Amino acid sequence: MQSTIIIILNFIFLQGLFGQSSIEILNTVLSPKGDMELQYADNDSCICMDVWLVSTKDTTQRFMLDSATTLGTKYFFSPDEKWIAANKEFLSNYRTIILYKQITGIQYSQVKDDEIYEKAVKFLSITEHLKYEPVFGHSMAKLIRWLPNSKEFLLEINGRDDNHGVIVSKWACLFNLETLSISLYKTNHGKVIRGH
């Protein structure tokens, strides 16, 4: 309840604030139904960007989805628009997927404790019969595409565990939004190279 109130207050405050300033739009993405636009906007306080959702029916209705995020981060609507997934770049050697769930209209809230990357690595270690869970010094999980039913998306993990000599390249699996779990992708062409 408290988080919903904060989001609504944020929504109201930002509507007033946005009308008083001009922001440089770096790129835009139209939602599948065409009723909202995702805007990547320059944030001149850092080498980063803010991400806004804007109603196409009433462009004064705006909602800040993310603030001061890295320029390499990309956001993807599910086909039914109930979810947005971000390929989030935290560091040059760590990238993962962040989920947002629709509350109402253009308002979304970040899903906490989904642990997509961690679950994918654990699933990989079980599926590939590794004796341990790899700890990658360089790691990346990224959304490849949403499935048409909006209940799952295809993701890919890449990583390098120098301590165990394991390299994972383009290893694909499915993430289920209803169960927040990982499952096999039947046409996975990824590789797991075991060094020692």
Q: What's the total count of β strands?
A: 13
Termini separation: 51 Å
* Helix fraction bin: 10-25%
* Silhouette: globular
Q: Which ranges are low-confidence, i.e. pLDDT below 50, for 5 or more consecutive residues? A: 1-20
Largest sheet: 9 strands, mixed
Strand content: over 45%
What count of domains describes the coordinates?
2
Query: What's the gyration radius in Å?
Result: 18 Å
Coarse structural class:
mainly beta
The average pLDDT value, as a whole number, equals 86
User: SSE order in H/E notation?
Assistant: HEEEEEEEEHEEEEE
Enumerate how many helices there are, as a single number: 2
Summarize the structure.
This protein is mainly β.
Describe this structure in words.
The chain has 196 residues and is mainly beta. The protein folds into two domains: 1-112; 114-196. The chain is built from two helices and 13 strands. It has helices at 2-18, 116-127, and strands spanning 25-30, 36-43, 48-55, 62-69, 74-77, 83-91, 94-104, 107-110, 138-146, 152-161, 166-176, 181-184, 191-194. Strands 5, 6, 7, 8, 9, 10, 11, 12 and 13 form a nine-stranded mixed beta sheet that branches. A four-stranded antiparallel beta sheet has the order 1-2-3-4, covered by helices on one side. Mean pLDDT is 86; it is low at 1-20.
